[in-house]
Design a protein that fits this description.
75% helix; mainly alpha
Length: 244
Amino acid sequence: MTWPAPPGVYGSAEPLFLLLMALAIEAYLGGLSLRGGWLPRPRRAFARWVREVERRLNRPERSATDRRLRGTVAVLVTAVLALVVGTLAGLLTRYYPFAWVIELLFLPLVLSQRGTWRRGAAVADALKDGSLIRARESLRPLVRERIEAARLDGLDSAGIIEVTIAGIGLRFATLLVGPVFWYVLLGLPGLLLQQATYIMDLALGGRAGEFGRAAERLDRLVSAPSRALAALLLAASAAFVPGG
């Protein structure tokens, strides 16, 4: 079976051009409060689905080996489904006239650059004003997936700065460099795989015990290239910042 030629410049768009447009859209509109009101949040919906699967399969009466095996199977099946769905979606947006608009609308929803910058700037402004309470509240959405609320409430100014820098670096690697890296490398299949492994690790890794071990390992494997690239980019950019 051979696929027909793409419909041409008026009906299709190059993936890298779509990525550039999506980055521009997210840089302008990302992190605004209106985003959460009427636009879908694909990561949040997928996380709910992952937790529901974990609730059904990760029963406490089962042995640790059984739960680890079930978690591994669930993670691998989900990763394969992400690749399959991404491949089918990529074929649709490439070969069906003007379907690239769907891809362009989807990409800004999984990229995060402006939102991270806004939250980091809010923490810095609060520290400049001497308000640790406001700084902690501004920091909370930046790191709530990785740090417990009780630990945040006990941070002093030095701790807030340290956690803020770490949180910005992690979000830069996982919510910007990671999606861009895998989208450039494999297109929509790579992007959906990266997002699926990232969300499964968030939803399962820290709370599901043996069931979440496979999610942690797969996320480390998938995110390793983008985290290394993010570290290089941050280190290089620091050379151009006074005191960096």
